Amino acid sequence: MEEFRPWGMELKSYLLLMHLSQLAGFIIPFGGLVLPIIMWATNKEHSKEIDDHGKVILNWIISAMIYAVVCTILIFVVIGIFGLMILGICGLIFAILGAIKANDGILWHYPLSIKFFK
């Protein structure tokens, strides 16, 4: 039986790229939202690891959106600006750490992430 290779890549490389794909949002509007979802949805049936990592990433994306809405509301009392900056830094750091862990074969749950998908 032939080994499954999502998008022609090694599984670890694909998982690493799934986590890093969130950073596309810093370059392309909504790219960090759309790309990880596409990567997860197109291959989740073929690999439990892809499904698990995709759920972790989606949990973080949804959680970050909720935090961003709250911070946007809090801009009126100034603290929201700092919250949005911290959220952006966390998004960058969490994606990089998730990618490193995925490359090491570890499923890393992002801190501060609400578990919508289990």
Describe what is shown at a glance:
By secondary structure, this protein is mainly alpha-helical. It has 4 helices and no strands.
Task: Tell me about this structure.
With 118 residues, the chain is mainly α. 64% of the residues lie in helices and 0% in strands. The chain has 4 helices and no strands. The chain has helices spanning 11-20, 31-43, 48-74, 79-103. The chain is elongated. 24% of the residues are buried. The mean pLDDT is 93.
Helix content: 55-70%
Helix tally equals 4
The run of helices and strands is HHHH
Strand content: under 5%
Radius of gyration, in Å, reads 15 Å
- In whole angstroms, the N-to-C terminal distance is 29 Å
Largest sheet: none
Globular, elongated, flat, extended or rod-shaped: what is the shape?
Answer: elongated
Average of pLDDT: 93
Assign the structural class, choosing from mainly alpha, mainly beta, alpha/beta, alpha+beta, or little secondary structure: mainly alpha
Unreliable sequence segments: none
Count of strand segments: 0
Question: Key features?
Answer:
elongated, mainly alpha, 118 residues, 4 helices
How are the SSEs placed, and which strands pair?
Blueprint lengths: L10 H10 L10 H13 L4 H27 L4 H25 L15
Helix pairs in contact: 1-3, 1-4, 2-3, 3-4
